[in-house]
């Protein structure tokens, strides 16, 4: 029986109230017609149509050619007039924000008018670029430019790039000082063009350049011409646009290159008033969540920390949200947890004051049929349920209930921002009690959580509850935190410590160790901070899908310290940081205090293969900033183009150096890194020592780093190189020794390999 329900189509619930959305689309038609007229811009559409009609083509030219040219020129002029004003207004707005109301003095002059396109002299027609000069002297007087840095795309996890394409993306001739670029030691070094060029087979800048302004002008032009009843095919046939770099307007038969319309749909234009306005807002958005689940989600890697479309890292079966079978009849939704979530909770509909609502009482009064005279959920006095719900709301609830059929209405009320009684009623219609198989009679009743039930929380919660203030504890803090339950402020030594595995002296649960030598067999406390954790021994972060036992040591607190990277990548527990100026450009500063060995964040970026690391080295040396982190001999993580805030962590001296050998003025490293296999891929994970909020994070970049950035030969000959590598490995080994053999974390001595 339950299977029948799972396969059931809930479309009848989704399709309710279709009429209302139909009327909205009619409104949009009218709205579009209206805005289209408004968007005709300053060109007189009527007179152009008249011109068009009087063009007889007697000169043998395409009859639409002169009209197309004229509209193109007018739009060109209007665009550059408008762009000048737009940029001035933007700059003024930015400056008044910056200077609290002071007027901006940026002036813009442009030669666009003189550079307008003329009749195309065959066979080539070059559109001269307008020269725009912006005089920023008034602004720069008190403008405090920040240090140079590389901007990058934010990333949650590493993105596998492998090798860069063979096309040279950048050639720093323009900025190059012919005496060479300055080195930190005051010297200068010439950019090694020959070596750099040798890395690529083609020059990227010789490819056809897409002028974004021209696209905008063309889009506005063709929009106007279309209003004059000239089709795209006719426009193309004039040859006016076909000679511009990104034509034709229609797609070529092969679909390559795409037509203007297709390209326009994919990009954002500046708010040039002559552009057609987008058709928005949509009156009734398409069902979002179900589309996401059935059509979009399957396109991407399902791994939480990886959203690539074609993912080579996680080809194995990944978790996919499956539909569930409803097990609870409506009456059982009350369960052990009978506390109303709010004063309008569905549980309160007929609850006599001063009484406790039990399951049976609930079934008597709340689920009572209307004729019993009760004001129950099914009572006739209730307005038609879901009157105010949109199709998207219904779709969302159906999708959620398909995935979690027995979810509590009170919890869903929070997600849906609807009343739990509406949700309860909806669920009852979706899963009628008659279709739900009786619960397994032998099944033990659900136990209340050992961290408290909703009842506990509600004692503190509804009107009287005040926040316990900032929480300083290292583990997860939510409504089940004992400090919250006890209404005390969380502190370093808070009650959470008893079950939070992030604290020192990890309290991982005893586990059955089936394999290993005699000493290991039997029930033992396995601490995930030692090599006893099988994942830790395999140098991989615990993964709930793959590892048994230690990954989730406590269902209430699933933050195993050995899977910190995984959870952080999923957006949890990453430490709060901010980027500020520091002694070396920008730096990363803590916004909260952290304890020793606490997870900070993962260092994310593009995972690139060694040859690409080498080819990028030329640019690194040129700009004197290196964001490349070596994972191992095959892969590096480069955050220069994409990454997270950890890319701003500056270098600090290794803590074990004697004072004399430290670089003057440098801080001591307070962050250490650990290469882990988290979620099936290598990642650099950063951990901290004890630190207060406000501290700048510093990481020891290692002995090679600054040698490499100055464009030197790194280590000289091969032998030296090997020595150096050995040293680095020894240093790394020391870190692991510290990690694994710290007496605080257990008897790792026995497990030394
Ligand atoms: C990963 S980035 C750090 C963020 C960088 N400060 C920024 O503003 O983007 C590394 C670069 O910062 C600079 N840097 C970091 N620590 C330094 C130090 N202790 N001394 C000199 N330069 C440092 C070097 O240019 C280095 O290549």
UniProtKB/TrEMBL annotation:
Instruction: Name a single GO biological process.
Output: heterochromatin formation
Q: Where is this region: Disordered?
A: 33-61, 103-125, 709-753
Q: Which segments constitute the CXC domain? A: 448-567
One Pfam family this chain carries?
A: SET
Concerning PROSITE patterns, the annotation shows: CXC, SET
Task: Give residue spans, biased composition: Acidic residues.
Answer: 712-729, 739-753
Q: Where is the composition biased (Polar residues)?
A: 33-45
> What spans are recorded as compositionally biased (Low complexity)?
103-112
Ordered alphabetically, the record's keywords are: Methyltransferase, S-adenosyl-L-methionine, Transcription, Transcription regulation, Transferase
Alphabetically, the GO molecular function entries are: chromatin binding; histone H3K27 methyltransferase activity
Every copy of the SET domain together lies at 575-702
**Organism (species):** Pleurotus eryngii (Boletus of the steppes)
**What's the protein called, per UniProt?**
SET domain-containing protein
* Matches recorded under SMART domains: SET (SM00317)
GO cellular component terms, semicolon-separated = nucleus
